[in-house]
Batch of 2 targets.
Target 1
Amino acid sequence: MDVKLPNLGEGADSGTIVSILVKEGEEITQGQNLIELENGKAVVAVPSPVGGKVGNVLVKVGDKISVGNVIVVLEGAVGTASKLSEPSVAPVKASRVPGIERTEQVAAGEAEQKSLAEPALKDSPFPPPASPTVRKIARDLGIDLRRIKGSEHGGRIVLDDVRSYIDRLQKLGSTSTKASAKPAETSVAAVVSIDFSKWGTVTRQPMTSLRKTISRRMVESWTTIPHVTQFDEADISGLMELRKKHKAAYEAAGASLTVTVFVLRALLDTLKQHPIFNASIDESKNEVVLKDYFHFGIAVDTEAGLIVPVIRDVDKKSMAQLARELSNIAVKTRDRKVGLEDLVGGSFTISNQGGIGGAHFTPIVNKPEVAILGLGRGVLKAAVKNGKIEPATMLPLCLSYDHRLIDGGSAARFIKDLLTALENFNEENLKL
Amino acid sequence: METIKTEVVVIGAGPGGYAAAFYAADLGKRVILIEQDKRLGGVCLNSGCIPSKALLHTTKIMAEASESGFRGIHFGAPRVELNELRAWKDGVLTKLGGGIAQLAKARGVEVLTGRGRFEDSRTLRVESASGQQFVTFEKAIIAVGSRPALPRAFDLGNPRIMTSTEALEIPDIPESLLIVGGGYIGMELGTVYARLGSKIVVVEALGSILAGADPDLAKPVLAYAQKRFKEIRVNTKVSKMATSGKQIKVSFALADGSEKSELYDRVLVAVGRVPSCDDFGLENTKIERDEKGFIKINSRQETAEQGIYAIGDVAGGVMLAHKAHKEARVAIEAMTGDSSEFKDIIIPAVVFTDPEVAWCGLTETEAKARGIAVEVSKFSWAASGRALSFDRPDGLTKLIIEPETERVLGMGIVGAGAGELIAEGVLAVEMGATAADLAACVHAHPTLSETVMEAAEAFYGHATHTYSRRKRSHE
């Protein structure tokens, strides 16, 4: 049987092998440690779930493995009822049957799907028992017959077995698609048309392509990112004073000094202290990509729908430049004049609803970014300062983040530092 | 000078080459088949399989006649007219060769008689008696075959030292014939000449004759040869040959290190075959050859030169016509974009000695060498009514079975007509049949094929015509 890396607990679903504790041909007992795995938190030993003779060790020191990867193949495993073992062959790589590869990855370690997964067959030095015709069909389809259990005497594989194997793969394929990164099509496909006119007159409009894109991206982000939103309120009374003081000079310089400009600047300083908020997850490699650049997406509310153009190199621009660029890009966006190049490459997004109204909300992370800052309308509230109640302009802040990468503590620290940067805004930054 | 353009050119019209040419034509390709010999069919038809079987058949009649006296049928001494025998044999070859030419014509395959040589990777120059022609092609199949090896030390230019090609012509019936090499060619031709009356000595460098066959299958052949040949000398090498009047003086290096020399009327050198692709212009292509000179190919018969394939003897591996035939199909299918591969294909081996030996799939010897656990189920022909009815109980049918799955992995047969019986083994192994499947099929009585069924039944311990204490239930 194949011994796979089990789930060792939260955040320990993968790691780097630091040592291998068994040799090929060695008899091992149940519970004996197979490898030591470093998973970022600690070095843990991985025990064998059963005893037996070590056939093949399929990993080496330095390998990065994750839950479901086969560590060793045990011969004559003790503790399992079946004398047959799972195939020690690698999943079909250049498979021509759509969905097979993904299926096999997803199938690993998922108990619910286990009943659907391939039967275990022993590794034989001979080709699988099947007629030349069936072998030809399998070759044409890129199917490894060793993964199919034949229904005839001696395990002989007939065309019906191949057929039911393909059926099973398709079933698995659709199951895994639901849980995988492309649920949009699936959910659309699953939806039935409802006749709303039964309850009154309706007008039907086609969904614009922008709306479809927004829909697809929101669903993808929402279903793949575990979202948490951190709320707070910043006292921007001081900031508003600074704004009043410098507004005219900025206007003279052709720049409109909005609260968003202040936030852009405060956010830049905060992100420099918390680079994980300016990062992405490379899901294909299981790597974290930390960015040295600061390109901020600005959510712009247009008649057609939400568009998020990007202001590049925020760290290299003065507040006046940022202010000019912010108003330019907003106009350009509302006029639908932004190009594709203006919409890509963002590292963090800001969604400011303050111009319209409203307080806290829960923005959705703009994938592949890992965090987004939502701003509500700054309103005068009664605030307690030095034991006295005073009026203060309070700005609602809503920080949504990808909990896969960012922990709650980090988010609390981030918003605290952002609060400080806004409440004690450095006037130096405003120099023209 | 004329240049012909074609889609596919096949060089060599042996059983691989003409099969490839015909198949390509059947799939709608324009095909040119180049053959240096006037008679199509290659070594197999002209100086191999077919003439040797014709001679074995004819001489078998003599052997059977001379051995039937004790059954009450008496013949006089046979009179052998070699001219008539050769003429009959040549008639068979001409008929078959003509048949191939007709089949080529019917398919529109153009046959060029001449010697092909690669000018570059897309051009062949064909030299014939009437001049030369150039053929440019999109795809080429090299099927130029092999020729008998004649080590330089033996190549004295003396016609008394023969290879199988000359021996099949039966220039005379030598009083004494030395056969160098106890493989299938040496043993088959030894059988022919022994029946014709020559005193045969077989010398083999290895420890046994018919290397490759399981010892229990080779045993009846050895027993027959020991009775009808003068001597089988294993672990012995021929160190030198020299002309000595109308004879050949042969020096032997014996196993114990000593030397001895003897005089023979003729010597047949049957020490293997070499690819016949020298002076073929391969250097003008990217085609690579291995250290023994065979053209290197992958599992789709492709050479290192894109668009050029090699099949049959020249591509190495077992040198058998039916292997070349299968490779022809793989090459054409690969050429036309099919997924075909020469992989996991069962190639039966047949030795037409007396008795015949045939096997396919896994042999017992190979299973032992590779440490594969198998069960061997045997049925002796001594218990076969059919075998006794023609007085040949010296046969054995055995199955090599994977114990866990009961799957038939190989079959081995020794006995009269083994070559015909092996087909069932090939089918069983290719189809992944189990011993139970073979046992369940009704085999006609009285035929030798029953031995296959009984060998399968013996695996379960309930063959009708043999008794075993061992019992094993069908699944």
Note: Chain A is about 30% helix and 25% strand.
Target 2
Amino acid sequence: MAFNVLIVDDSSSMRAIVKKIIKVSGFDVGEFWDVSDGKEALKVLANEWVDIVLTDINMPNMNGMELMAEMKKDELLRSIPVVMITTEGSEKKMQEAMDSGASGYVKKPFLPEDVKRTLISIIGEEDGQRDNDGADEAGDF
Amino acid sequence: MDKEIMMELMKQAISDVLETMFFQPVQISSKNCTLQEWFFDKQSLLGATLTFSGPFAGLFYIVIPVNLVKEITANFLGIEKEEVNENQKEDTIKEALNIIGGHMFSLFDKEGATSLGIPELIEDNNLQHDNLGEIKGNTFFIKTEDNHRAALVVTEMK
């Protein structure tokens, strides 16, 4: 079944990259939304059906940890998996993110495979991916 | 931590990021020359800064010729160089510095006690060749396989 993805990063280039990786990795994606901070993300989450959130931590206005905290307070949003894609790469900070409810994390710099592997670990290979559709393109990324 | 080890880790961080995310293998040295000497050909430059605070505090600068920014942006986004626009170049140089800074601290600040700010562009005027001397600090001189030059400067580190 197709899943809907929300990408949150203050870098439009990074949002484009993550979107591209997900597309070429063969995941069965319905809708994509991409926004530049946590506040914008909450607006999307209030109005759209989102199945997974991929967010940077270090952003202006509302950072990724604050976004996740707001989601965990909301009965309708707390079960949505949140993946941190971040430069905040220390083990301690990543553990803090996981303890606060993140479902996974990807440290920058990353390879496309790192994002793919993390998503599979969360949404499952069979559920999330189309049958080989787009997978061949991943090598050309 | 010994300053020499820290400098080596910084070189590793720059190299890791430029190679992994921007497909740009580089050589890095910390030779004794000024930015004005390094960018002797007076190419048009683009730059960004990033503050960091905590046990380590200071400012990163990254300075890259516009042509090279265009190239790494195209590599990063997987598009043709001709398709790269101004916003993409500016966003990419800021994100490159952000990733390099974060990766550096992940290598030597295991507790994660150092926080990064939000990257900002350096105004054109401050990147005029005559003004480059104002950017001072520990400087990493970066050279790509195609002999493009770039530099990363770290100031005020304690």
Note: DSSP finds four helices and seven strands in chain B.
